[in-house]
Design a protein that fits this description.
- The strands form 3 sheets. Strands 3, 4, 5, 6, 8, 11 and 13 form a 7-stranded antiparallel β-sheet that branches.
- The N and C termini lie far apart (42 Å).
- The protein is α+β, with helices and mostly antiparallel strands and 334 residues long.
- Helices cover 31% and strands 16% of the residues.
Length: 334
Amino acid sequence: MTAPADTLPFPPGRPSDYLPLADEPTFDPGQHLALEMPSETTDLATLGYQESDLADCASSFAVSNAFRILSREGVAAMRHVCDQIYHNRNANEGTGANRLGSYARGAGYRSQFIRDFCDSPELAAHLSDIAGVPLGRHSVPAVACGINYAPEDISRAIDTWHVDSVAFDIVMMITDPSVLKGGEFQYFHGTKQEGQALLGITGEEGVDTALPEDRVVTIPFPEAGFGFMQQGTMIFHRACRLLERADRITMIPSFEVLPANAPDSTNTLNMADWDDPGICPELARHEIWRTQARLESLLGEIALEDHPAELSARINAAIGRLVSFSDKLEKKSS
């Protein structure tokens, strides 16, 4: 199976730290998917966002309840794959020492099954219907196919309060949620700015501190194979600590708005500071690909009557993100 035509393919090869699996099934959407629609969705306005806040958002969709994604056969196959990747999970501390406890980013490098799942046109079409905007697998492999595991130290949160660096993702339970004590997924019923202000943080950093209970929503998972969808750059959320040691595996595939010239909220400047293998080249490919698409669109729009100042503004809008990312790389090298 190949990625949808509008999605940037994975780069050739894989980071040397990521070991390919020798024993995995072949992904079959007819066998492994059992896509259902969520019964509840919340929009950004309901969380308190104003029209001015939504100007750069491609969709008004905020978050859904959990809905079925994988069939029982799909759950068994995905669990088999994730259990093997656990022994080759990322060795670093994630986006910061106060964030993820145990995880594998870039799982599509290790597993063809996971890569084909994330590239599934059926999955992309289903999520696009939920979000109300065309989506495809994210072009940055580190976040396109991610897995979170229970931390070895269960006094740590699985993931602390934060916002994501990518616009859309699903959080899908791979293990049986009925046996878990703790480990709930929660989001703040308010804007991200409110949540961050209450905890005294900025940006996308995480902190493991309680928010007012009456402002926190817990999303239950009926069983393994269910997941929910969120516009992660706008939802302040966390995965709580476990109260008892248990297997807890969630898969977090990420998606971006298509086509490539559409507005993009991927925070490549933040992600450039992650120490995942290959992250900076992955981010460079993303920004080059989307800049190329914006320039191609601009090429077809320019008229001989256009004023020089207008042309300059439109050119800068097309290339601005790539220039900023290049500047970030230069500062990292100095």
